[in-house]
Amino acid sequence: MELLMPAGDLEKMRYALAFGADAVYLGVPRFSLRARENGFKGKAQVIEAIHYAHQRRKKVYVTANILPHNHKVEPFLKYVRALLKECAPDAWILSDPGLIMMMREAYPDQVVHLSVQANTVNFASVRFWRKVGVRRVILSRELSIKEMREIKQRCPDMELEAFVHGAICIAYSGRCLISNYMSYRDPNQGTCSNSCRWSYKIFHKGDVQPRQWLDRAAETAPAVTQHGDPYVSLAGEYYLEESQRPGELMPIDEDENGTYLMNSRDLCGIEYLPEMAEAGITSFKVEGRSKSVYYTALIARAYRRAIDDLLARRPLDPESLRDIFATSNRGLTAGFLKGNPSHNAQSFEDGRSRAGHYRFSGIVRSYAPEKRLMKVEVRNPIGRGMVLELVLPSETRRLTVDNLLDQKGRPVDRVHGGAGFCWIPSERDPGAFALLRECLDSAAVSL
Questions:
Q1: How far is CA 230 from CA 94, 213, 222, 259, 395, in A?
Q2: How is 205-229 classified by DSSP, letter by letter?
Q3: 268 with 333: CB under 8 angstroms?
Q4: pTM of this prediction?
Q5: Taken in order 67, 73, 75, 80, is the CA torsion positive or negative?
Q6: pLDDT per residue over 307-359, tens digit each?
Q7: What is the pLDDT of residues 214-259, one digit of tens each?
Q8: What are the chain's domains?
Q9: Nearest in space to 286 (alpha carbons), one of 165, 418, 142, 144
């Protein structure tokens, strides 16, 4: 069983592998669905990533899962040809039938995995892709474990991969045009602006000043009850105004669910790994190439531990759940794994990620053994006397900041996020992959 983690850049890839990933997936901006916030701008970074992973007997899958227009087809094949002169990834993640056909014709020895962007939801589609030479299918997020099991039973020789953690799209696994409509950025070309998570105000036609929809609706329609909650039926025409675009009104229909219209909770399937493994899933995939190093490390550690527990026939370690809740999320859901989640998959109150009980304090960049000092790149405020946690690939330790030095080695009481780096005493070298975090709620999260 494979733990497949996202790699938004080289650093995130290194931490993903150090904290337990068996493989990573990455994409270059022009051909993948992460055109922004992508650290693999050039071929050199991809080559370095592949060499780094292969030296550690890990795998790299290169993602090129856009739905390309004509002007991107030949440049993609040119990119493949140039990359293969230097090194070969372990697989290419593609979604477009034309690109898959041309890849199989030009480079039949290259392994192709079918992207979730192809929306594979039945065994007949899996059989089709097997016939054209696809080695692995990444199943649609909209499938239940029961459906996954049937696909494997009917297609036993096909590798199956499924998402187990991360953001969920409001559309069928990414085939969405909401961002294109709202901000003229095409999700299918890698430039999604996540319009489904924006906050909005609602206006009634004829209003001069903005007002909340419920205030206006209360004047025009009687209240009724739906699903046990008070609900005011709207009459007339209504418009949305996104908080960052005042004055730009967009026509919309509204119901009882508030102003975060399409914001999904985040997927968390860690408790269902045994069922997914029994159903035939061999690669457990985590979403999040744009997430932080801290997120990548903690989620990798959680799922690595969970997979090891599964292989050893041990129950799920509560520490794995604690790692998950130590990262930001929009509320967690099992998605479609146990069937259609209905409204339980949506979060209508807030579209932002919440940090939970911890705050990412910094990254340990080096250790000076003669001075017994850690050099820390500061991400959030660190103060003298603060009790932090040192997060390592295999354990978590408490650390009291008895002394704090600024970049020039001068004693200070506090350093702020973005201030460069500081020095913190430590009796031993924490190693190459160490992170620091602050526990914000010691009563709720005890060691």
A1: 46, 14, 10, 16, 48
A2: TT-SS---HHHHHHHHS-EEEETTE
A3: yes
A4: 0.81
A5: positive
A6: 999 999 999 999 999 999 999 887 888 888 988 765 554 444 444 556 568 99
A7: 444 444 444 444 444 444 555 566 676 766 677 776 665 544 444 4
A8: 2-174+264-345 (3.20.20.70), 200-252 (no CATH), 359-439 (2.40.30.10)
A9: 165
- Confirm if 267 and 141 have CB atoms less than 8 A apart: yes
According to DSSP H, which parts of 280-342 are helical? 293-311, 318-325
Angle (CA) 304 149 163, round 5°? 40
Within 10 angstroms of residue 323's Cβ, the number of other Cβ atoms is: 25
Quote the CA–CA distance of 88 and 112 in Å, as a whole number: 12
- At 381, the amino acid letter reads P
Residue type, position 424, single letter: I
> To which residue do tokens 């970074």 refer?
45
E-only strand ranges, 121-210: 136-138, 159-166, 200-204
Give the residue among 290, 254, 343, 240 at the shortest CA–CA distance from 34: 290
- Pairing status of strand 229-232 against strand 223-226: antiparallel
Question: Is the distance from CB of 39 to CB of 45 less than 8 angstroms?
Answer: yes
